[in-house]
Batch of 2 targets.
Target 1
Amino acid sequence: MSDNKNYGFTTTVLHNDRRKPIEHGSLHKPVHTSVTFGYEDARQLASVFQGKEPGFRYGRQGNPTVSALEDKVSKMEDGVATICFATGMGAIGALFQALLKAGDHVVSSSFLFGNTNSLWNTTAGQGVDVAFVDATDVANVEQALKPNTRMVFVETIANPRTQVADLARIGDLCRKHGILYVVDNTMTTPYLFRPKKVGAGLVVNALTKSIGGHGIALGGALTDTGLFDWAAYPNIAPNFRKLAPSAQGMAQVRAKALRDFGATLGPEAAHHIAVGAETLALRMERTCANALALASMLEADPRVAKVHYPGLVSHPQHALATELFRAPGSLFSFELKDGIDCFDYLNELKLAIPASNLGDTRTLVIPVAHTIFFEMGPERRASMGIAESLVRVSVGIEDTEDLLADFGDALNFVSKL
Ligand SMILES: *Cc1c(COP(=O)(O)O)cnc(C)c1O
């Protein structure tokens, strides 16, 4: 398979490994577990080390199985290069380790995955100042910019309250000021949305979630879309300045974040994720349809106080989400009316499982304020719009009628308590 046709999303993912010859005609890139890679000619080893010819040297910086996944993620995001990490947080932590310095300033959406929020608070103690803003309006981002702002960081659809960032206008703003625009695309995945379209320079994907999709492997990725001008980025060390400008950013990330800090994705996990990615589009079609059906049913129910899902007309960024995304995602959250205890409700569900992952094939539910957002305390929760009774639902691929019955029956039961 060596033609240059422009194939669709799933065809590309399925056949990408075979675009380079694979041992024995294998259809999947094999799982290469070797930690190191030997060369018959010691001069060749030296030239691989010096970057004069391609090749693998030691597994912390690169592995053939992981490299095949990196190439696949680049294709999915229409990017120029991808680096995989042991987890999604490894990929986000790499931004800090490899691209920021003491004295730098970051503007971040305040509607964030809890651990990213925690990471930005850690960096504050290490000289990198982070301003949290309501990124649903570009004006708030613009107001927070400073001369030393190096990076603007947003999520596409925020987890768990589903606010949608003003993605395209923030992209325009960053381009105008030459600031690196980083978009965490985990909630939408490259099937629903490509951040390159709105000018992102780097894209984060937690591969653990929908891309891997089956809850069996952790992983993360950082993709360079090729839009950001690394030659103008002040924090590139002199030895990476020698490279072509387009390669400087990712070379520094691979060296400083992967080689020096070691959050390396293992080959077995990369294989699990690559297999999961083959059905990403099929699963997203199903989970998004299920999410819309469930969210609509709950919104129409008088025992439910609020439902947050960009697919509902009542959502403040419904129009924006419809314009930007192929579908509004597999995750929604809702609040029960006062007097109905969310724990009693969750305990009545027979299919949906109380658990903290998302993007799984199975439907998972979690009482947000009491678990993943417990540590940050009531004030920060309130500022992020997290009600104490908020339940997050990561919708799976179960049959729609079964899910509707499960959530409906549990409501009927608890409203009689
Ligand atoms: C889960 C998640 C992450 C982190 O991914 P891990 O693989 O769990 O480290 C980052 N961003 C978002 C939006 C997530 O949902």
Target 2
Amino acid sequence: MTTAKASQTTSAPAKPARGRFGPYGGQYVPETIMPALEELDLGFRAALADSAFHTELQRLMKTYVGRPTPLYEAARFAEQVGGGPVWLKREDLAHTGAHKINNAIGQGLLAQRMGKRRIIAETGAGQHGVATATVCAMLGLQSIVYMGEEDMRRQAINVYRMRLLGAEVRAVTAGTRTLKDAISEAFRDWVTNIESTYYLIGSVVGPYPYPEIGRTFQAVISREARAQSLEVIGRLPDRVIACVGGGSNAIGSFTCFVDDAAVELIGVEAGGRGLGLGDNAATLSTGRPGILHGAHSYVLQDSAGQIAETHSVSAGLDYPGVGPEHAYLKDRGRVRYVSVSDAEALEAFFGLTRSEGIMPALEPAHALAWVRANPHPGVTLVTLSGRGDKDIQTVATASGHEEYLA
Ligand SMILES: *Cc1c(COP(=O)(O)O)cnc(C)c1O
């Protein structure tokens, strides 16, 4: 098994080793977790080789999630931007209002197939917790969601939503009482309940095979979008743009375009209130390689290697790490990573809402903001990873509109 000692940082192998994306990825976990990762890897491979698994996944993607999600031409938004046409991949129309359900359903079915009936998950803003609780309700599985106490206070509605769905939400009081502490607590639970429990990670982060599992279930975004572009637009887009938190909607949006050399791929991170350490969550733009939550990738850290505090107006992007495949795509130069500020994202939220009658989540509002600042004469495809209903309290506070909600 891959360990820190075996990590290759000097010469990237021509064909990345299993579990590696160039020098990134790997399994930097306590030995007690290794058998569980091995079992997960075997279970995942077996599911991929089983046509019944694919049939059931496709049935649920269609009849439960509502896939394929449409490709919509945002003509009035494009006019505002002042370049060529802008198309939106409407993940906001998926059940529960975001792309996270794609991954939660895939892993829920995987857990079921592996005979694990106790599901644990971590959540920051609550979106992944809601997606997990939703899938567990539908599949009849037990769900326990770890959430930082501070996040529970900030996202009280999502906590209630998870409880309505039958999940047990456990408050995490360690550290900064936010997402990274919740992830640590979920790993602790997994170690002690490894026989019965499946840990359902919500993005393309964590030790191998999680980044690959997340990519496999989110690739449906670009598989559909690529085929829809050819069918509806009659050609591939010139650029594909997605926001990057842990990186799952972006990997899902890029995967089927990576071999199309003419298609420019752009990941947009949270620039927060500035590019100084602690003021943003722009991990690839301002971080350095390091290890967080079991994988080698870019990390926001101080000079002593301590994980930095992060800030973003968008709770879903507010994470100090990023999936290891993004680190590799960045170093290879295949994807360009940029960032936009809280203020620009808020402006783009209003821009799309007023021009199209579509309220975006603040996460993809970052991708829209970058498009607004960088008009292009060609065809632009943006992944609208989720809807903005969850964010209207934040928008009201940030815009001085709180009296309307009183
Ligand atoms: C959670 C979330 C994100 C960020 O997560 P990724 O893994 O980077 O996709 C982006 N958009 C929405 C709507 C989310 O809920």
